[in-house]
Amino acid sequence: MNKAIFLDRDGVLINNLHQYYIWKSDQLEFVEGVFENLQLLQKKGFQLFIVSNQGGIARGLYSIDDVLKLHHELIATFRKNHIVITEILFCPHHNDKEKCLCRKPEPLMIEKLIAKYNLKKNESVMIGDNESDMEAATRAGIAGIKILPNKNMFPFITTLLQ
Ligand SMILES: [Mg+2]
Ligand SMILES: [Zn+2]
Asked: What distance in angstroms lies between residue 16's CA and the mean position of ligand 1's atoms?
């Protein structure tokens, strides 16, 4: 099983409609259909990864530890719903503060995971709600599916479920 889905986090898995930056567990509100959709993708043999820009760290709004703690909880909640997230990568930088090679649209987070898990590029897909997610996918040499922010992704992923 060497094909993967790379998921953006905010606006795709977690609802960020009310607050742009998410770092506390009481802000954890899952987008409609997320558990069912990820279960279906998993059944199709995709490994699941999350790749997320967390520029709020560089901006001093929250810490790397806050994000790690939240991701612990995220992974546990998914696990309770029979979903395995293989790994989460996030970029703690922001262009306002320092330029880096990982912040999407840079493809580095995706490229690292492709290398580490020996993933097939032609069968892997990035799902995001932002143009920068799509650009990162293209630059990493994989397909991208752009969904509507904070909406059930199901209508957009049907081609992956055939
Ligand atoms: Mg997003
Ligand atoms: Zn970065």
From this structure: 8
